[in-house]
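Our platform keeps sequence and structure together, in a single record for each protein. This encoding replaces a full spatial description with a residue-level series of whole-number codes. We quote a single record here, exactly as it is kept in our systems:
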Amino acid sequence: MLGILSVLIIVHECGHFSVARFFGFQTPVFGFGLPFGPHWVVGKKWGTEFRIHACLLGGYVAIPELGDESNQDAFGVPLKPFRKFPIWQRALVAFAGVGMNILFAYLVTLVMFFSMGQPIHSTTIGGLPPENPIAAQAGVKEGDELIAIDDYPITSSTDAVNYLGGHKSTPVKLHLSRNKQPITLEMTTNSNGKVGMALEDKSPTYRKLTGNPIDVAGQALNQLVKWTWSMIDNLGQMVQGLAAGGKSSGSGHPAIGLQDLHGVLAVIKIGADIAQQDWSQLMIFTIMISMDLAIINLVPWPALDGGHLAFMTFEAIRGRPMGERAQGEIVKWGFMGLMVLMVVIMANDVTALFTGKLDIRKREPVSAKDKGAESKSSESKSSDSNSSDSKSVESKSTEPKAAEPQSAETKATGSSTDSAATDEKKNDSAAPQESNSK
């Protein structure tokens, strides 16, 4: 897992580095690791000093003309006179890291589709809690496979939770498979869009694809887009949960608080467990982390790539850049906020590690959390990259997103759980994908 995260970090930074070099930006330092503490210079090339820092969980490219630093002496290496670059070139440099993460995720998806096939996920009924007997009274049995709800195909427990949550007090038809025989059952959801089912996402099977390479590449792209939209949706739920102070809104969304945010340690622990249980899941896990890094980096927060893009957008609209003092204050306080968040996330990771909350092999479903990929409350849910999480149709969760350390920036990773008013089942695995420090 450390190797995978390192590759994703270097891929991201190579995006910034290559585009900056192409347009003629100065790149005095390319560092692997967080930019503090002792470092070792491993070489100099193209006017760039390549460094390895003691804390390896990060990476950065110093691009002073992008506005990363106002102090020309901050890099500790001689700089040439600064040039003024047009906004579109600076924007491409800022976006290049995200673009490389997206391309890398698609490349891994292509490799998976051509070598293993398309992952086919199944969602089964893991339990029927007596507190909400709607599904049980309609004839649903533990072990049934959920194929679709009405005409909406179900490929994960998240799909079911989303659909039912949007159809409160509404008649629905569940299309199930029992002993390989199709069954259709009718029922009406309660006022919260729940029917009383604990769902489990099973490890995917892989279906070999036929057709020409272009068709397979198109299917791989469609799969990546679907996973990405699911991650964005789950991230939005995580933000709503945090904004609500960790209190459930009663809409089926997870109750998420600061204690539910996790980062790089959680990613490494959960990813390692997934690899030990089913190494094939590691490929999906890597795709999710890479896309997560892309999504989180686009958040318009100072020190992240999205922060640079936000300043450039302001400059384009206003016709001139923001004043140096104002921009400096925004960057300073934004960076301090990220540092505080990183400390909170690290404390959460260490606490969860020592209390066993990150052990997906032994963990029992608590409510599940959705996005990025972790579980936490009463049932667990898994993202497409999990082997098998249990989650209830009563609520929604968020999966922890892997984070990417990079320049002196920090990312937050959300880890929440799908809460369900149901029994708890055992989670075979949960896949994280939420975020970490950049």
User: Anything to note?
Assistant: The chain is about 40% helix and 15% strand. The longest helix spans residues 324-355. Residues 362-438 have pLDDT under 50 and may be disordered. The domain at 120-207 is CATH 2.30.42.10 (Pdz3 Domain).
